[in-house]
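User: what does the whole thing look like in 3D?
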Amino acid sequence: MARMRKDYETSWWPRLRRWIDAGASPLDDALEKALDETREGHQVLSQEEAAEREERAEARQRLDRAREARMYARFREWRQQKGRRWANMLYRLLAVTVCLAIIWVLLETAAYLPPFGHADNPAHNEVSRRYIEDGMTETGAVNIVAGMILDYRAFDTLGESNVLFIAACAVIILLRLPDARDGSGHTAALLEAEADDRMYEPKNDAILQATARLLTPFILMFGLYVMFYGHISPGGGFSGGAIMGAGLILYLNAFGFKKAERFFTYTTFRVISVAALSFYAGSKAYSFFTGANGLHSFITPGTPGRIFSAGLIPYLNIAVGFVVCCTMYAFYTLFRKGDL
Amino acid sequence: MGEFLRFFLAAVLTLGGLAVLISGVFGVFRFRYALNRIHAAALNDTVGIALTLLGVIVAEGLSPIGIRLALVAVFLWATSPVASHLLGRLEITANDELSENMNVTDEKAVLREKEGK
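Assistant: Here's the predicted 3D structure for the full assembly of 457 residues, as structure tokens:
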């Protein structure tokens, strides 16, 4: 139930309602008149009369109730037999219609698309020409895609990373068990959730553990490589972060929560995500500010192809990658046991 | 001539891999029980992928891309049997009516009998 504010009576909505109600409705008038009439012709009823009236009223009520019950029964019957058929038919009809409509709209749209790979397509305008021709000298990134998403359109990528972060926050709000919040760790609800989760799970599988012990370092290393070389070769923060997150999930599956919690807890998630996003926002704010005002910036494209080049791009890749990695791992653990 | 031989070898290997993959896919849909399906899928994961990648490696030669493809093959060979193993173990753990689908021997009892007395 909603709580009422203290000054509710003086706020605008009740005042408006009172103002509207102040004009009496004709119905109220009629009711008042009827009441007055009965009051004028007021008389004491004898007991027989009262009993007779009561009986009449009860009979009327019974009749009404029976009629209502019949109506409901008829309605229920209709709903279960004829109505169900109708609803099914309507449903099928609508489903087919909607599908056909969507197919028609999509085909119509596809018919108006420009031919693939044609030189005169609207996508081949001065923007993409600029990206392809001047992208490397302007951003210092050999990988044009990295130059686009982390330099020309860095604001957009900041939004994307924040979307990931917000999604993780929403999952934490929805799925994190209340006991997990005080940080004491192994409360009854948490242990129960974990036991429930691992009931059918093969526990401490030796083959999986041996494989994970061998592979996890390489997976993490490969993820870091994809992240660090995002401005030179295909890859970047999003893919590298996804690879690292997958490696962490493999480790967690092989060795269980107890070992994974030694290096990745809720605090780790919080610190890494917030630090990476703040770094992204701060550094890009500096770059935007100096760029827009024509000031001298210490961020330079450098020599394309070197690992320390392309200005902010490698660092932004790392920030994005860590956010993606943390988000993936957090999703997985939250869905499995309601805590990180 | 060498170039043609190489192309021929690569084509044979890739086509052989594709044939194995196709039979594996048919097996996955044809079999009705989880463990049988694992058996069919394991063909894909090991022989099919190995032959296909080997064909691409032969076509590519000992370039960085070829080496990376070899690493991909090693990675898949290391991981997919583990995945099959986990699936099988999960089936054994979760299926209560295991004896309806297969012959179940109590291994410990067999061992005891062998060692026994």
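In plain terms: Chain A touches chain B at residues 200-202, 205, 207-208, 211, 214-215 (CB under 8 Å). The mean pLDDT of chain A is 81.
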